[in-house]
Amino acid sequence: MTRHDGPEDRWFDRDAGPVVRPYALTMGRTLPSGGESFDLIDVVVATSGRMPEHFRPGPEHRRLLSLCRRPTPIVDLTSEIDLPLGVVRVLLGDLISEGLVGVLATQKQPATDQRLLRMVLDGLESL
Amino acid sequence: MALNHSDGAPSTAKILISGGFGVGKTTLVGAISEIRPLRTEEPMSDRSVGIDDTRRVGAKTTTTVAMDFGRISFPSRLVLYLFGTPGQERFWFMWDELSIGAIGAVVLADTSGWPTASPRSTTSSTTGCRSSSRSTASTARPGSTRMTSGSRSAWAPGYRS
C-alpha cells in the first residue's frame, strides 16, 4: 500500500496501477502472434540478429532485449520487468518472430529426466 | 526458434508448493527462497467473509491472489523454482499453468484440523488435494516455519497435472 502524503499525492501512483495498461502494451493481443507457447521456466536469450527495419520495438521490447542478453528464464524476466506474464509472453513472441530472441530447448519430460532429478536431489541435500 | 543449451545457460526445474487455504505455502516459499519472493499477497476484504475460512488462522489478514515465486540456485548451474499456488478454490484454474512441467510437488496439510484434513486424501494425488483443500484450514502463523511440526509434506516425484 502506498501512503498518501499531502499535496504531492498524485492520482497515478502505484495503487492506481500503470498509466499505460497491459492491453495497450500488447496492442490488444492476449497470445503471442507467432503461436509460440512458453513455459514459465523456459530460458530465453537474445540472438545477435539485427533489428529488422520494419520492426518498431516499444520501450518494453527494448527492456526485454537488454534483460535477456544472458540466458534468462522467463519467470525471472517477468519478475525483473514488472509486467504481467501474459504481456511478457506476447512481447517475447514479437522478438522471437523477428529473430531477435531465441528459446533454449527445454526438457520435454523433466519429471523422468534422471540427470535433472539427481541434480535437484544433490542440490537440496547440500542446502 | 529453438536453440541448444549452451554453456552459459542454466538448467531450470520447477516444484509446486500446494495445499489448502492458510496452511503456510507463502511462508514456506519465503523461508527457503534465496530471493525476496515475488509475492502477490493482498489484504483480505470483507468480501471473503463466508468464503475463506479464517477461523484457525486468526492473524491471517492477507492472502495470495496469484502465486508465490521463489528461487534456489545451485552451484551446478541448476536453478530450482518454487511456485506456491493460491489456496482458494476460485484460483484453482492457475494450478494447471503452474504444474505443467513440474518435477515434483510439496503438498502442505494442516494436521491440527484432523480428521477433516486427512493426510491420506491430501497426499495421494492432486485430485485428492483439490477435493479436500477447503477443509484444510491451518494454524500456521505468518512468519513461522513450523513445517515439520504443524504441517505434513509429501514428496511426489513424477507429479503431473
Task: Kindly estimate the percentage of residues of chain B that lie in beta strands according to DSSP.
Answer: 15-25%
Oligomer: heterodimer
Number-wise, the strands of chain A total 3
| Biggest sheet character of chain A | 3 strands, antiparallel
Low-confidence stretches of chain B: 117-161
What are the low-pLDDT stretches of chain A, counting only 5+ consecutive residues below 50?
none
Strand content of chain A: 5-15%
Would you tell me the structural class of the helices and strands of chain B?
alpha/beta
Main sheet makeup of chain B: 5 strands, mixed
List keywords for this structure.
heterodimer; A: 127 residues; mainly alpha; 3-stranded antiparallel sheet; 8% strand; globular; B: 161 residues; alpha/beta; 5-stranded mixed sheet; two-stranded antiparallel sheet; 8 strands; 20% helix; 25% strand; disordered C terminus
Describe this structure in words.
- The complex is a heterodimer of chains A (127) and B (161).
- With 127 residues, chain A is mainly α.
- In chain A, 36% of the residues lie in helices and 8% in strands.
- Chain A has a 3-stranded antiparallel beta sheet with strand order 2-1-3.
- Chain A has helices at 22-25, 59-67, 74-81, 85-97, 114-125; strands at 43-46, 72-73, 101-104.
- Chain B is of the alpha/beta class.
- Chain B is built from 5 helices and 8 strands.
- Chain B has helices at 25-32, 93-99, 119-124, 126-132, 147-150; strands spanning 2-3, 11-19, 41-43, 62-64, 68-74, 78-84, 104-110, 151-152.
- In chain B, the strands form 2 sheets. Chain B has a 5-stranded mixed beta sheet with strand order 5-6-2-7-8. In chain B, strands 3-4 form a two-stranded antiparallel sheet.
- The two termini of chain B are 27 Å apart.
- Classes of the chains: A mainly alpha (127), B alpha/beta (161).
- Chains A and B meet through helix 3, strand 3 and helix 5 of A and strand 1, strand 2, strand 5 and strand 6 of B.
